Amino acid sequence: MVKISIILVASLVSLTCASPLHIHERRSEPPSEYADLGPAPAKSTLALRLALVPNDMDGLHQKLYEISTPGSATYRQWLSKEEVEAFVAPSSESTSSVKSWLSASGISYETVSPAGDWIGINVTVGQANSLLSARFSTFKHRQTGHEIVRTLSYSIPASLKGHLDFVHPTIAFVNSMTICYILPSTDTFT
User: Fold this and answer.
1) What range does the record give for the signal peptide (predicted)?
2) 182 lies in some domain
């Protein structure tokens, strides 16, 4: 029995070593407008969006420069939706690498953009903490009382560096006061 336990532990350690993690994004503290209420409930659901690295962002920038420069042969020849999608689409290697990681982690996913550059997952906080080696917490906006679930850092397998651009929402704290100012005025809020 002890021998089996040792083999199991050794196997888990070797798997962990085979997939070293890389801290992908982090911030030292939440914005001052937010209070950390502690760990988010492990069974709460998070809708996360994974942004894959675009295949040819430099090409898109160059093309946009050309079509907006007077005197250019392609000046004012606007790009179609399909042409833009071709520039921002991830490589097939990026797509398969990220999807394989999610599948191996037991996470269901769906592509949520026409170009395939965004993948959506719905996971529990516990799954997100495990998948991203994170500590998701509940934060409360000091003025509005609005609560959100975020983390101050997350990690991904080092092999996904260059394939996965970022995961949202993780370390981003949107200022809900700014959003309120752009909403039309009404007497009733839902």
Assistant:
1) 1-18
2) no
Is 160 among the domain residues?
yes
| Total count of domains within the chain | 2
Contact, 43 vs 126, CB < 8 A? yes
CB count in 10 Å sphere of residue 132: 22
- Going from the C-alpha of 55 to that of each of 58, 60, 117, 169, the distances in angstroms are 9, 10, 9, 23
Q: Do both 64 and 127 map to the same domain? A: no
Tokens of 136: 């998701």
Question: How confident is the prediction along the chain (190 residues), in pLDDT tens digits per residue?
Answer: 445 444 433 443 344 345 799 999 999 999 999 999 999 999 999 999 999 999 999 999 999 999 999 998 989 999 999 999 999 999 999 999 999 999 999 999 998 899 999 999 999 999 999 999 999 999 999 999 999 999 999 999 999 999 999 999 999 997 655 544 444 444 444 3
Rounded CA separation 29/89 (Å): 33
The residue type found at 147 is E
Give the residue numbers spanning the domain of 132: 19-54+91-177
* Dihedral pair phi/psi, residue 107, rounded to 5°: -105, 125
